[in-house]
Amino acid sequence: MKKLSTNAVRQIWIDFFKSKEHLFLPPVSLVPVQDPSLLWINSGVATLKPYFDGRLTPPSQRLTNSQKSIRTNDIENVGVTARHHTMFEMLGNFSIGDYFKKEAIEFAWELLTSKKWFDIPVEKLYITVFEDDQEAFDIWTKNIKVSPDHIFKGTRETNFWDVGQGPCGPNSEIFFDRGPSWDPENIGPKLLKDDIENDRYIEIWNIVFSQFNNDGNNNYTDLPRKNIDTGAGLERLVSIFQDAPTNFETDLFMPTIEAIENIADRKKTYNFKAASENKGVINRDNTAFKVIADHIRAVTFAISDGVFPGNKDRGYIIRRLIRRSSVYGRKLGIDKPFLYRLVDIVVGTMKEFYPYLIEKRNLVVESIKTEEEKFLKTLTKGSEMLENVMAKHKIISGKDALLLFESFGFPIELTIELAGEQNIKVDQKEFEILLDSAKEIARNSRKDLKAWDKQNEIFTKLKVESKFVGWDTESNIAKVVYLFQKDKPLNEVTGDEAFVILDETPFYAEKGGQAADRGTLTINGQDFLVIDVQEGPGHQNIHRVILNNKKIKIGDIVETKVDSEKRYFTMKNHSGTHILHAALREVLGNDVMQSGSYNDENGLRMDFNFNRLITLEENHKIQKVVDREIGLQVPREVYFTTMDEAVSKHKALAFFTEKYEGIVRVVKFGDFSSELCGGTHVENTKVIEDLVITSIESKSSGIYRIHALTSHQTVNDYVSEIFNNVIQEAKIIMSKYENSSKTLKDSELIKCYDKLLKVENSKFNIGILKQCLEELKNIFKNYDKKVQDLVISEQISKFSDVKPVLNNDKVNQIEIKAKNLEVKAIKALIDNLINKHKDVIVIVTSQINGENVLAVGVSDSLNTKFPAIDIFKNYKNLSPKGGGNKFFAQGKY
Questions:
Q1: Phi, psi (5° rounding) for residue 411?
Q2: 425-428 LR contacts (CB < 8 Å, sep 24+)
Q3: Any idea which of 256-270, 507-521, 527-541, 613-627 has the lowest mean pLDDT?
Q4: pLDDT confidence band for 477 (50 / 70 / 90)
């Protein structure tokens, strides 16, 4: 059998399906786009959901890909089993309403067995099908001529793909036989027939025949468009072609494992043959190497795709992977940050297919090293906690073990190992129960998010064509070619509102971060308001139109008119987004990449990945770069070209979170900004006029959101409003100072106020102005406390000569009736008298703004026998309302 490298296996797959008229889709980011049901892209088909559920029309009905994916529901199995990974690549071929079972099976067999392609011996392959899928069984046995002893019928549990609501169907799996040496009990094909876990027969291919729709209640109907969804794990295929005991002894991971050996100064420690020589026995050193090699690959890709270590969601997963790797590094004797040193190995291994890793290298290294250094301190705390637990208990509870696992990243194996060194046992059973419970809670919280959208027949069958002409015009004469209302296609509509498709339209549909146009359709002199435009699966712009009980019918001739003012300001903001993005990259570095945006007539918003908050100085530089490009009056250029030429010739930024079709549109502003974009833009940067950043905030770990405004008038109004509001707030503070200045003066406060007033009205000085205001607030806060202390001191000084008298219990007591004495002053007075006279009860009443206040304080020597709260409640039958304790009580009566 051929011995193939990882890159060769992947390329053969892609080349084969290209030869079968499949369009190759380059891999996209691990971070899902507009899919809240997924934390990560977790399969090759996950990126294609809009094509399968009918929201978008695919660029081809035949597709193929090799998609990086992450699954983290069983991280603890990574390094222990032969084929578990956090990040893996899934090779796929897909048919969306094109070929079905026969062709899918024939493609699989040809690729696997043909000497031109993978050339796997036929006798090494075994097949499973769903027991009720006679069609697939017949294709395998009659068309492909698979031997009856090499094909088995599986149950619904093993051979039917179903996630609840949404598309589903039977599947057929292909297994590779690694031979009797992996079958010590010589059970043979019965392992497959009875679905027994084994290391002999390795699943290398799964074809899902997506032909039904589950309504969520297990009622199944035929899909209007039947699909093929195929997945083959690249790592598994590579292990087969490299005759590796596990996925790890391949060219994907061995370079990293060898680098770890060098860092740990433990060359030749990793046992390449451990899995084949000691089947079922865990080699702990090997586990440590595997965990680190797996996790550093996943972390490198995740950070490159804009996910940074953090406290929640994806960031938490990445933090956990880094910390778990660090713990296993300690088991190999590595007690310093080291993971960041492995990034170059990962980049070198993967760069042929993922060249973008090269430019992300520095960002990844810096992020991992910072996280490692933080964790070394945390790890020390975890070790201290474990030592404290072991010092107090003869057995470590499952609760403590889980706390170590979740809070400090201690694998249960490490806790058991360290405890075992001191002959202390760990309650593993309780740990497993608690861990399973935690997993179940997590699973249940996400279960309802897994179902795919139901296919909508209106969209899956929508073949009508519509052309967007809005790049060149804001009005035209068009014809109504499609109407629907409440999910029903109609020949004519009336009532409140309807959805209209025109043969040609200047109305821009919301996409690419740009808001939809609004405007009017005029038919036979009657105006219809267009309030929204969305894109259909076939790139038709679907207009949401207010009818007001007027009628529209198919064939009507329409005069269209886009709201020019809304379009004009939206264009300024969209072009401003491009210029701002390029400015961010110039000032902060090319690692910065936009991860989302929204532009309308009111302003712009952009999310971008970065590993820290931007400084005030960087903010100024970014705005100055934008001003520079506006001042240079750079004309807009637009090119329609291939993806390759867009990137190579026009240096266009392609956001790999997005999908691009054969011909792409490039929007350029000189050599400064070049992006793939379908939106409307100003003809020259001078039209943007001005731009001000209004805020930058953290959205999640490593993701920041920037808001900005464009246009001279808008920017000037915003800056003036900010300055006016800040100065007004400062004046209110100073008016309070004036009222108190007779009691106490503060030159520092006056100096700070003068400094604030001298800040020049400019967008570049907004940050400085706000800093001055914060400084003024802090100074005044301290000043006001000093004034209050002086006022209180003066108020209570008049009672300094009061003397205690013996009460009925022969205890010293002071009673004071005061007026306009605030509660804060009353408490200070009581504290002062107790400190002065020691063994004393102090009772103060005061009338404040028409309300009567009572407070009681008792010295430490007396409050056990005479609690302040008891004296308060029973004072002269006043029935006061309030509370306190034995030291002090207060309230109203």
A1: -60, 150
A2: 425/394, 425/395, 425/396, 426/395, 426/396, 426/398, 426/401, 427/395, 427/396, 427/397, 427/398, 427/401, 428/398, 428/401
A3: 527-541
A4: very high
Cα 59 to Cα 57: distance, rounded to the nearest angstrom: 7
The three-state secondary structure class of 485 is strand
Residues 671 and 765 in one domain: no
CATH number assigned to the domain comprising residue 692: 3.30.980.10
Terminus-to-terminus CA distance in the chain, angstroms? 96
Q: What SS3 class is residue 358?
A: helix
489 and 601 share a domain? no
Q: Which of 456, 303, 322 is nearest to 379 (CA)?
A: 322
Alpha carbon distance 792, 824 (integer Å)? 8
Please name the residues in contact with 705: beta carbons below 8 A apart, sequence gap of 6 or more: 605, 606, 607, 696, 697, 698, 699
Do 214 and 275 sit in the same domain of this protein?
Answer: no
Query: Which 3 state secondary structure label does DSSP give 570?
Result: helix
CA angle 220, 226, 227 (to 5 degrees): 115
- CA dist 396 and 385 (Å) reads 11
The torsion angles phi and psi of 595, rounded to 5 degrees, stand at -125, 15
- Tell me the pLDDT tens digit for each residue of 138-158: 999 999 999 999 999 999 999
The predicted-structure confidence for 438-467, as pLDDT tens digits, reads as follows: 666 545 433 332 332 334 556 556 788 999
Listed residues 690, 710, 730: the one ending a domain: 710
CA atoms of 302 and 354, how far apart (whole Å): 13
DSSP H stretches of helix in 538-598:
564-588
- Residue spans of beta strands (DSSP E) within 4-157: 23-25, 62-70, 87-96, 125-130, 151-154
pTM of the model: 0.65
| Tokens describing residue 466 | 């519509």
Q: Which amino acid, residue 24?
A: F
Place of tokens 């190759």: 24
**Highest-pLDDT range among 74-88, 405-419, 559-573:** 559-573
Q: How far is CA 749 from CA 314, 754, 767, in A?
A: 46, 9, 20
Residues paired with residue 91 on neighbouring β-strands, in sequence order = 66, 232
